[in-house]
TrEMBL record:
<dbReference type="GO" id="GO:0043709">
    <property type="term" value="P:cell adhesion involved in single-species biofilm formation"/>
</dbReference>
<dbReference type="InterPro" id="IPR000160">
    <property type="entry name" value="GGDEF_dom"/>
</dbReference>
<dbReference type="GO" id="GO:0052621">
    <property type="term" value="F:diguanylate cyclase activity"/>
</dbReference>
<dbReference type="GO" id="GO:1902201">
    <property type="term" value="P:negative regulation of bacterial-type flagellum-dependent cell motility"/>
</dbReference>
<dbReference type="InterPro" id="IPR050469">
    <property type="entry name" value="Diguanylate_Cyclase"/>
</dbReference>
<feature type="domain" description="GGDEF">
    <location>
        <begin position="162"/>
        <end position="293"/>
    </location>
</feature>
<dbReference type="InterPro" id="IPR043128">
    <property type="entry name" value="Rev_trsase/Diguanyl_cyclase"/>
</dbReference>
<dbReference type="Pfam" id="PF00990">
    <property type="entry name" value="GGDEF"/>
</dbReference>
<dbReference type="GO" id="GO:0005886">
    <property type="term" value="C:plasma membrane"/>
</dbReference>
<dbReference type="InterPro" id="IPR029787">
    <property type="entry name" value="Nucleotide_cyclase"/>
</dbReference>
<protein>
    <recommendedName>
        <fullName>diguanylate cyclase</fullName>
        <ecNumber>2.7.7.65</ecNumber>
    </recommendedName>
</protein>
Length: 306
């Protein structure tokens, strides 16, 4: 019944669809037009508004905490737990300055039935997108995520006229670790390295596993000097011994550093960071190599201890 359009309803029953039925039919159709959770909640809030007036809507799930409209924490709330068969879909809360009546709550319930399937689909889509952009071993963003983030951050830096730097990092002689201690120990070191990376950079910097034992960091609002300082901090932190599979191991990393120029696109920026990394390897590994943004000269930070 809900999926019938107004015309079909009129043809079948010989009268126009009642307003409440028409509203739920329209809302159901609208909710099927998006897989984005935020958009879905906006559509839902608009659809429910004339039947259960509210100033704000909040959706909480283990993977999300979203607010739509004017959310006032201190005012009246109408809270619903969302379950579809046995699946926990989170919690939906309406808020406003007037108390909610029993009738409001019942109407809200009847609209929630329309939301459950579209919301479950949106949650699954969001989870699939998240997995498609995450490296399963380290939990860092993967190369696809790096490409998308770099394109976005590059545009942002251009618009604001702010600096942007990139690090490319590659663990040294990692094949030896695998060959000597086995792949599981190698995996343990890769996880350890990604933790060091995430803990050493600032919260605005983003870390990615580029592939194998190669990683990248995007640093918005960061010039080459600050990027070089941060790269050195990472290099020093990596050298501290770490126990994997009962083996106290020490690793080192080579790092290429570069910053955005006017002529750069994503490919040239990453390419220059990769070249700087290659230079760091060529000059003896366990070092940071800064490519001059103009690409004409470069600075090498030799290890203070190795
Ligand atoms: N354990 C583990 N090893 C990996 C993974 N991905 C790539 N590797 C290993 O990383 C090693 C990379 O070796 P190479 O490319 O020769 O580089 P390297 O030994 O680090 O030497 P340099 O980079 O020249 O310092 C190979 O042995 C790969 O098998 C992974 O997910 N887990």
């Amino acid at each position: 019944m809900w999926s019938e359009c107004h015309k079909c309803y009129a043809a079948r029953y010989g009268e126009p669809m009642p307003a409440a039925t028409a509203a739920t039919a329209d809302l159901l159709l609208q909710l099927q037009t998006t897989l984005e959770i935020q958009d879905l909640l906006c559509l839902f809030s608009e659809g429910v508004q004339s039947f259960v007036p509210h100033s704000g809507l909040r959706y909480r799930h283990s993977s999300n905490d979203l607010k739509v409209g004017v959310w006032e924490d201190g005012s009246y709330h109408c809270r619903k737990v969302l379950v579809l068969v046995d699946e926990d879909l989170g919690e939906l809360v309406l808020s406003r300055s007037e108390p909610f009546s029993g009738e409001d709550s019942r109407r809200f319930d009847s609209f929630i039935h329309l939301l459950l399937h579209p919301l479950r689909n949106a949650l699954r889509y969001s989870c699939a997108m998240e997995n498609a952009h995450r490296d399963p071993l380290t939990g860092l963003g993967n190369r696809r995520a790096l490409d998308a983030t770099l394109a976005r951050d590059l545009q942002l830096a251009r618009r604001r006229g702010s600096p942007l730097s990139v690090l490319m990092l590659d663990l040294d002689r990692f094949k030896m670790i695998n060959d000597r201690y086995g792949h599981a120990v190698g995996d343990c070191l890769l996880r350890h390295f990604s933790r060091i990376l995430s803990e050493t950079v600032r919260s605005s910097d983003l870390c990615f596993r580029y592939g194998g034992e190669e990683f990248a960091v995007i640093m918005p609002d960061t010039d080459s000097n600050s990027a070089n300082t941060l790269a050195e901090r990472i290099r020093q932190a990596v050298m501290l011994p770490h126990c994997c599979g009962g083996h106290p191991l020490q690793m080192t990393v080579s790092i290429g550093v570069t910053s955005l120029t006017d002529k750069d696109n994503e490919r040239t920026l990453l390419g220059r960071a990769d070249q700087a990394l290659y230079q760091a390897k060529r000059l003896g590994r366990n070092r940071t190599h800064l490519a001059n943004p103009a690409g004409t000269s470069s600075i090498d930070t030799a290890p203070k201890c190795s």
